Amino acid sequence: MRRVVRTICSTVLVVILSLMTVTTVQARNCKQLVIAGGENWYPYFYHGTAGEMGILGDMVLEAASSSDIRARLMPPIPWKRILYFLNSGQIDVVAGALKTVEREQYSSFSDPVAQLDLQIFLNREIPFEFSLPEDLIGKTGAKLRGASFGDALDQFAFESLVIQEANDSDSLFAMLLARRVDYAITFKFHGLRYIETHKLDNQLAMLPQPLTSVGLHVAFSKASKCPQLIELLAESLAQMAKDGRSRQIIERYNHEFSNVSWRLMNE
């Protein structure tokens, strides 16, 4: 009996030592973090012509640089795939995501970096009045695939609304232009910028009343093979919030917003 116990104990010890060895090797091999964000998600994450990466992109890259962490940017991919890769650990960091109960199963989150308005966009030829989410019942909407409105509104939408999904912003607004849907939901400045850059101001518009306001976070994969680097990055982001560098980045983009003229639905 003692011999069996010793054998079992020896086997367990070998397994533990093997796991510790694998973890140590992985730690030594952690030289970079893979970072991703929403595709052309102005002004939060996008590839700008002057090298800017959006509010969250600039924050994460500056935090990485401050901590001597090498960052590898994932090429633009659909949002749903970003979440899948975050879950599997193929992406370490997402620069800009809503915090939901489902996502907390596979991600940890920074403190809120910004508070964002989710807005309703319409085809000017088929307007309707809106003040509460219940006003959307009986209509067909659209959103980006995998996008969240926050836990409470996600549940309401699941139970009471008909919402189709689009792979990207082009598809989202094409559905609205073609009248395949009655409205589209996306973040305020992202939608307004899309309308401006594609010269759709006379065809599409934003309703003034926000659908909801949500906090935007940086998400960290719990399946990352580089938890030590993620911890350093999270600490660096928190320090940026304390010393004012995060606010400086936000103000840089706010200045750009103030130089753009946008029309609402009733204008």
UniProtKB/TrEMBL annotation:
Start and end residues of each Solute-binding protein family 3/N-terminal domain: 32-256
Signal peptide: 1-27
Keyword Nucleotidyltransferase: no
Top-rank taxon, per record: Bacteria
InterPro entries noted in UniProt: Solute-binding_3/MltF_N (IPR001638)
Gene3D superfamilies according to UniProt: Periplasmic binding protein-like II (3.40.190.10)
Keyword terms of this UniProt record: Signal
SMART domains found in the cross-reference section: PBPb
Family of the protein in this entry: Belongs to the bacterial solute-binding protein 3 family.
Listed name of the protein: Amino acid ABC transporter periplasmic protein
